Here is the input.
Amino acid sequence: MKRYLSPKEYMKIIGKLAQKIQKEDYKPDAVLAILNGGKYPATFISNYFEIPMFEIRIKSYKGQNQGNIVVYGKVPEDLAKYRNVLVVDDLVDSGKTIKEAKHLLEKYPGITTRIATLFLKPSSSEIPDFYVEVDNKWIVFPYEVSILGIFFKFYFDMNERKFMDKFKKQ
Here is the structure.
């Protein structure tokens, strides 16, 4: 069974994640986005906390089939300047991607990492520090549906500041 997220629902869940992080009184110095799925939540969180964002692509899926972990690129060297790094992805399924991200960051002594995701699958071997929902369905994000993806990019770019201000006031 699949769950299709509307752009509005997706943005609301991202806002809830930022609020959870803030309520825990955790103050990250930087965000590391796991591409592709972590890009939009990490961008929002980076702007919400006014901290720099870095990116790395770690992939364990090809279509809907899980396979081996593939890392594209490497951890940006500038990330070593920061102490509290928040790793952001859209969801934790098996836990392989998050485990690999933690492994890559272990090479930088002095960096403390915490993990934030929108969704957690109940069968995951890794539990993120921050997540919004546990859901066993296949999540279809707005940017994954071709025409909706184009609309979502426009919606995200045009409404992020307004949306972020609304969540900061709550």
Q: What stands out?
A: The chain has a mean pLDDT of 83. The domain at 2-169 is CATH 3.40.50.2020 (Rossmann fold). The helical segments are 7-23, 39-49, 96-105, 146-169. The radius of gyration is 15 Å.
